[in-house]
Amino acid sequence: MVARREIARFWSLESLHLVSSDGGTEPSALVDDNGSEEDFSYEDLCQASPRYLQPGGEQLAINELISDGNVVCAEALWDHVTMDDQELGFKAGDVIQVLEASNKDWWWGRSEDKEAWFPASFVRLRVNQEELSENSSSTPSEEQDEEASQSRHRHCENKQQMRTNVIREIMDTERVYIKHLRDICEGYIRQCRKHTAMFTVAQLATIFGNIEDIYKFQRKFLKDLEKQYNKEEPHLSEIGSCFLQHQEGFAIYSEYCNNHPGACLELANLMQQGKYRHFFEACRLLQQMIDIAIDGFLLTPVQKICKYPLQLAELLKYTTQEHSDYSNIKAAYEAMKNVACLINERKRKLESIDKIARWQVSIVGWEGLDILDRSSELIHSGELTKITKQGKSQQRTFFLFDHQLVSCKKDLLRRDMLYYKGRLDMDDMELVDLEDGRDKDCNLSVKNAFKLVSRTTDEVHLFCAKKQEDKARWLQACADERRRVQEDQELGMEISENQKKLAMLNAQKAGHGKSKGYSGCPVAPPHQSLHPIHQRHVTVPTSVPQQQVFGLAEPKRKPSFFWHTFNRLTPFRK
């Protein structure tokens, strides 16, 4: 309990207050009572939020806590899927115990009894660090029953403090976020517009997207948060209504996230010229911004929208059902989770089109329109036996995308090489499940079979799987394809023609080398690496300099496992 209170105090009180000249404290703020921003210097903001602003500050604080024997936990912002035994895989929302944070980009942690490296930028540190022992169940003894009343009272007070910590973190991170947005608008965009010889209007629209609209929206949102914030008793604050009131406004992030891949490409192209690198660095210094590259600043909105559900989930955890804000916080959590899910789905589609484009380039003898003209994600893939009208069997590898089913044939000698054999329009097909036995239409005995029937021509396409479970997967995949197409139409989820063309252009130019504008981006080999999107969720790094966020770029290479083992075994380590 002592350790937990110390950690909570460390992450909340120390990081969220300004130290006055007389040694007292006062809450930090970036807006006045009217909602307008006050001018804070970099030093003031560092005092207000050293763990969020100062480079390396959070990392140093974590190591201090760990070295003191405290348990430090983090929550995953995104999925991290890996085939590397030295990396820790997890899903969004999973809790990871941080064991070492000496490296800026990769931390050592534990999840489900496995210890391995994981990208530090994929997680958010919990505001309230709880000891693992408290999560374990125990049977109270008679002696403990005597202290039950006192324990409940202490628990109530502790829960109030926990809620205070989360409320303060939400308020503090909002103020810092507004500072970052203001720096982008005033430090970068304003200066870029003055230099018309260097930037066209179209270039600036590509690089910065609608971040100025986000800045205006977040100022209004913060203004309402400040009104609901109880400075004297933060645990009594009722901020849930603010999220519900502005939930439709958060949809503005979808446009920004959709634009971000193009922004990364445009920025990467400009950064190849020294004058642009020097210009952006001069803008940063003139605005007295923290030591983060421009691409890191432009990533903050993507980061922010994914943090809201985690913050609200932790706030809900420490909000009792009797609290006046409970119902609003619960509704706000669901609302922000839906917003984040929608944006993540758009993000995944954008990530998948680059792999799909590279996959198409690897197919020999491709005919017709590009796959991206109608499709944006792979639903399922596998081998099926196609039965022709003449009753002949053809072994084929099929790839089910949204709207299309593509058929390929493997090379007899090089099994990793695929030849294009055709495709079916799934919008025109009706799925029919067949029982084992003789099919009346084809007059053939079939097993593990199903067919696709054209609604316009009544043409029948008969397929047989090797196993019953394989057939079941294909039936489910076909149902998923129809459902996803309908969802995309309802949500208006479309990939721009420019992004599709750019993905194909990069794939054609790159071949098996590096794609244009994707520094350090791993290129997919032939078809084996094109995993269905429901099987492998590619994640977004959040703090690596010059990364291409939606280009599947990974953080910097993780530290050597040898050195980690050596450091753990050395007897002189503090």
TrEMBL record:
Localization (cell): Cell projection, Ruffle membrane; Cytoplasm
Molecular function terms, GO-annotated: guanyl-nucleotide exchange factor activity
Pfam families: RhoGEF (PF00621), SH3_1 (PF00018), SOS1_NGEF_PH (PF22697)
Keyword Transcription regulation: no
Superkingdom in the source lineage: Eukaryota
Keywords: Cell membrane, Cell projection, Cytoplasm, Guanine-nucleotide releasing factor, Membrane, SH3 domain
Domain DH: start-end pairs: 162-346
GO terms under biological process: filopodium assembly; lamellipodium assembly
Gene3D superfamilies linked to this entry: Dbl homology (DH) domain (1.20.900.10), Pleckstrin-homology domain (PH domain)/Phosphotyrosine-binding domain (PTB) (2.30.29.30), SH3 Domains (2.30.30.40)
Main location as per UniProt: membrane
InterPro entries recorded: DBL_dom_sf (IPR035899), DH_dom (IPR000219), PH-like_dom_sf (IPR011993), PH_domain (IPR001849), SH3-like_dom_sf (IPR036028), SH3_domain (IPR001452), SOS1_NGEF_PH (IPR055251)
Domain SH3: 69-128
Protein name: Spermatosis associated 13
Species: Cebus imitator (Panamanian white-faced capuchin)
